[in-house]
Automatic annotation (TrEMBL):
The gene is ruvA. The keyword Lyase does not apply. It comes from the Bacteria. This is Holliday junction branch migration complex subunit RuvA. One of its GO terms (molecular function) is hydrolase activity. Residues 149-200 are annotated as: Domain III. Keywords: Cytoplasm, DNA damage, DNA recombination, DNA repair, DNA-binding, Hydrolase. Residues 62-139 are annotated as: Domain II. Pfam families: HHH_5 (PF14520), RuvA_C (PF07499), RuvA_N (PF01330). Signal peptide: none annotated.
Amino acid sequence: MYEYLKGTIVSIKPDYIVLENNGIGYLILTPYPYQYKQEEAVQIFIEQIVRESELTLYGFKNLEDKQLFNLLNRVSGIGPRSALAIMASEDVSGLAAAVDAGDIKYLMKFPGIGKKTASQIVLDLQGKMAIYQDDSLETADQMKSQPASGSKEFDESLQALQALGYTQREIDKISPKLKQTQLNKVDEYVKEGLRLLLKK
C-alpha cells in the first residue's frame, strides 16, 4: 500500500498522468491531470485499488483530496471513476453544501449520477463533509488571463471532459460558450467547462 509517491511528471493525458520515480513510470488516474505540469517534480498522495486482476493507482495533490475520494468511493453506486469525475469540478465547498442540504438535483448534474445514487450520497455523507465547507480553491473566473493562442488547448480540454464521463451531447451544448472564453491553458478551459456543465 502506498501513501504517496515523489517523482517527475513525464506525461499528461485527459484522465491520467505518468509519474517517473527511479526509472519506473507509474500510471496514475487523477481527477484533474492538467493541474500538473510536464517535467514538474511533485509529491502525489496515492490510493491503490485492487479489483479482480486490475490494480489501479489514484493520485491526489493533498491528503484532504485523498480522504474525499475515499468518502465518495465508499458510497453505494459510486465507483472510483465516478468519484474522480465528481472531484474534478473542484467545487468541493459546493459539493459539501449540496450534501448537507440534501440537494439531489445538484448532485445529479455529475456524470453517471442518477436520483438513486444522489440520494445515497446524501444518506451516506450528510454531516461528514464539514471540513470541506470553507474550501477556497481557485475558480476558473479567478484564473482567466491571456487569450488562447490556438485551439489545441481547447480541443484537449474537451477530451478531458469526455474522459471524466460527460457525453458528447453535453459537451457540445457548452462548447460554443467555452470557446468564447479568453483562456490560455488546458486546465483553465477544463475548470470553466466543468463550471458550465454544473450550471446546466
